[in-house]
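Appendix C. Worked example: Sister chromatid cohesion protein
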Amino acid sequence: MWIRSGDDVIPNFGHDFLGFMANAGIVEEFGVVRGDFEMANRRAHHDLVTIVYPPGCREVSEDLGPDEMIRRLKTLAHTFQTLSQAEDESTYADYTPLAIHLADDSYLNNSSRDVQLLVACCIADILRIFAPEAPYKDTKQIKTIFYFLIKQLGGLRDPKDPAFKRYFYLLENLAYVKSFNMCFDLEDCSEIFCALFQLMFKIVNGEHSGKVKSFMLDVLTPLITEADFVSNELLDIILINIVDPQKSQQKNAYSLAKDLVVKTSATLEPYIQQFFNQVLILGKVDQKLQISRKVYDLIYELNHICPRILLTVLPQLEFKLKSTEEVDRMGSVALLARMFSEVNSNLATNHRQLWLAFLGRYNDISVAIRIKCVQYTMHFLLNHPELIGDIKDTLELRQHDPEENVRYEVVMAIVTTAKRDFDVVSRSEELLNFVKERTLDKRFKIRKEAISGLAMIYRKHLSNPQNVPEATKNAVTWIKDKILHGYYMQGMEDRLLVERLLNTCLVPFNMDTTERMKKLFLLFATIDENACKAFIEIQKNQFVVRKCVSELVALHRLPPSEKRDREIKIKIQATAKHLPEPVKATEFIRKLSAHLLTDKVMLANMEKITDGVLSCSECMATVNQVLKKLGSPIMTNLYYGTVKQLLERISSVMVDDVAIRELAGLVQEALNAGDILEELGLDSSRAGERGLRLLMVLSFVFAPHYMYTDVLNKIVGLLKTPADFVAPLALSVLTYIGKHKPLGDDFPSILQTLTPICKDFVNNGTPKQAKQSIKCLFMNATETQDAVFTEILEIIKTNLDPAKGDQYRTAIVALGHVAFHLPDKFPIQIKNLVSRKIVKELLIQDRTEVSSQGKLKSLEFVGYDRVDREFQVHVDGSLAWCDEEDLPLETRCKMEGMKMMARWLIGLKDDKDDDKTNSVTISAHKTFRILNAFVSNKGDLREEGKPSPAERAWFRLAAGCAILKICEQKGVGDKYTLDQFYTLSTLFTDPIPQVRERILIKLHKGLGRGIPNKCLPLDFMGLYALAGLDTDKKLLHMARQYMTIDIGKRKDYVKSLMMSGAADKFSNQIHRIMPDYMIVFAIPLLTHYHGFPVYDDEEALKKLQSALWFIMEPLMTKNDNFSFGFYKTLIEKIKNHSDARNADDEATNYKLWSMCDLAMGILISKTSNYELKEFPADLEIPRLFYTPPDDPNFVNVLNYLPADMMAKIPKKSSMINYIPTVSAQAVMVKKDKGGASVNNATTAGTSSSAINVVTENPLPSSDNDANGTTESQTIYDPDPSQESNGRVPRKRGRPPGSTKVAAASPVTAEDTHEEEDEAGREEEKGQKDDEKADPIPAKRARSTRAGGTKEKDNTPVQEEPATTSGRPRRAAAAVKK
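Step 2, the predicted output written as structure tokens:
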């Protein structure tokens, strides 16, 4: 009802509407209080107004029933729909009371949804027909109406609603005339708009048609574009819908918001820019706004939706990139990385300064930011080729990042890029080089990804070698090398990875046999020498593992017994060593063993796999059958994974008998310059040699696959090829085949063809051909061996004539190998040939005229370090080194003669502790003496100056290598004396670097063979200390690497003894195996070093200190079982001994003891854990190198180092009870002035605890006058006058200088021994001849001091056997005086 009061028309608000308004918060919000409405109701009873209805419409009042009201409202709504918009304000003026009447709360709050909807439609039409002026003038009423309309628009939520059409009409009507624009005149219009926008984003869904969404957009757009101001709250409502999680969870709201932003971008731009300016620059963040927490996501989305909006915003991000807060930098980096890397993004080009600032974050101090930058590298490489240059520059730095995760991401970025788009990486050799460098990373996970990535690239190249970029073709030349170089890494994981990649990528096992062999041939023919050695090592290691597993499997066929179970346990531990984490692997191999005992089928399959006779396809099928019985192939099934790793190592999926036939044919074709060279792009000068080497390697591992007539005929046919390199390699193949099974047993016809060819090689071939011919016939000839080698020996005798030229050298080599392989068949003949032809006519004689250089007059052998430069190029211009091929024939023959003597002596080996015969002992002594003479005389045996400097260097080297080779052999190698050992050590400080390098290589090889009894004894490990004196960084690094490997091998052997339970059996031999004992042998070697003249030479001591640390570092820092107490006790015991070579020479003993003090100082200063652990065995000091004190209680408590070199005791090392602080120099000065001397303690109870010495101005170097020193103050608890049984320095000042050992006299032909031709000559006469005609005169021979005890007086020393090794098997060498 409406009432008139004067000219005012006042609505009658009911109580129901008041309740609605109160519940909606509108009453209080708009300042409308309940009293106002109640007063209006009281006034409504006065004057009533007349409400005019359109024609055909009946009166609508709140008194009507619901159905009737709905019918009348429908009619009214339909009528309003038909009315057009008013032409002027008076057109529909009569309907103004009706409009106000319909806005009564009884209708707006009617309980019927239909009534409310029809009223909303009527009001919308009223607004339409009255536009642009609405009949509603009261602002409060207008607010109420628009909140009502917003509420009704919520009905659009469900398009399936029967009333949806009316809701749609309402939306369309409001959009058509922009009805909500009326709210602009309201003060709080933004609140209405916020409610409307929230509703629209809430109700829009996928079931809405395009028209609905379009009208929604039409309703919202004018409210932004025509507004005078857009509030942050409204921005928040709009923009929050374009970022996650709303973006992904409410995709239709996102679409509506995106379209709205696009349509209103011009209006929104300043408001958005202002918002980002507040947040990014000023740092003012309104926490009430949701978008304040999504700033970077918002920028990213806006850049997608309408980049123009961000033209002034993006440069502001540069400030965030340089922020001091890591969170800000991370957010901006993550944002820009996404924006820059997007497909078709021009951001990096348009904002170059911002791009450069972003690149600077690759060097950010934060690891997380650097990782984030690198992770997006893949997208840059894939989507923006124009940016690759900048990316490569940044990656070059990051691939060397100190953080491993950054380096890992660099590799992953490049490798993942290659997987997605191979061409991107293949076109850039720099990117491939980055991956190449990471193959040597210290972390396995990085090496793994780098090597695997390169392998994948190589495999793609193999699949299509023609259509690849030039960069890839260049990279392929080194990719396969780098993959195989990974086998040199120490970790077992690296080796397993390379083995797997070899079979899957380098030579894919799933190719057919012909193609697979072509790829194998291509690989082996094009890799470098180091990669070639790695390939060979792979085959050898897999062969060893296969053999180990075969032995383990064979034990399961034995009947149950305690012995079998014990052997199985030992084999399980041995097998586990070939897998990563042996302790864990042991558990699963033990489980596999139990499985084999119960599953006979699986046992049979394992036997087939380890036999090595299956074809590749059969082997794969058998492996799969075994794997099926191990459970599901999932990550958590560690049993499956461990056995799979083992099967990968022992299965043969690359080579079988068919493959060998194919490969032999390819090699034969390559040697004949066939089409295969062009097809594979191989070098004709290299392919044949590499192919033969490949056949040789495979014959060692897969000999059964060669046991076919056609294959053997092909290999024998290769011997007719004229090239010199062919025959030795082909003969090596036949040798390995014969080692598996002699040809004389199964293929006598082939042996019959082979024998005359080998004889011809011995007669007319090269030394290599003769050598391999002897070995081949020895392995393959069975019944005809005696006859064949009798003929060969006659050929050798005939050719042992210097006039024969090259045949002479070949005969020497052949004789050496006959003597080595057949020592018992021709003992007398060979011995006579050695004596007459090799020693007398070859080694002793110098047929060359005196060289133009003459003698090296200014060169002293003990002064190598001072004449190194002179020695390299001598004053007369002669080179001190040359290639072996450039040496004269006579020189090369002499070198072969030394090797021949070594082989002959090794052939006379005696595996027993006692001598086999006296003749063997005599031969060993003579051989060692003549070889030692070459070393001691600087390579010039007769000292006549005939050999050139280069020849002398080669002679020294050849003699040293021969000595090392002999010393590897148990029996004859034990006849080596101490003096000869010291003479040999001079080669490790030889002035020629090539000599030092090659003797070092020979030492490493000798120490690594057949630990512990088929290698050089532990004594020779001490020689590494002299290598530590080298000034050549390359040689020093090589020596450290070799030493570390040798130490590791011995540690592994000791560990295997412990694990196998055999430690007790070898407990008395542990000091001859443990590498920790190498310091025992290093100390005397450094004591006798020619550059250590006196014990207090500080310059020399500093060098020797670095040499000691060189060998002690890997023992102390890389030893999990390091025991400070062990080393402390060991050094103390050494210091209580004297030098065995010069036991009575105080100068030598002082040097020895000063070396002990140096070692103790290093031990104290470099140790962090001073715990005195117990060690299992007694510490034995070898008598060969040391003479024990007369008094068993003797303790040497003096310190023989200069005062400034004495070790300082750390504060935390209070448990150390022996650090000598008494200066030996101070003691000598004190005694010289008549004071009581400080004696070395004679009892264990009077060690350092009994001494407290304070020295002032310690005695300077003994070269100075002692009178100028201050007397040392000495306090000694025991009676100073008491006589001590220990050695006390007797002289003041420096002890006597080192005794210079006289050089050996020239050896003449008259000095040589004559061996009798007759086999029955008496041995006693041979001994007399030996004593009479010794190559080294007796007065100059170096003898070894016996290792026995020494009496106080001048009692003669008891003669005992003395050798260089602590091995229990070594016999004593006779001591001559």
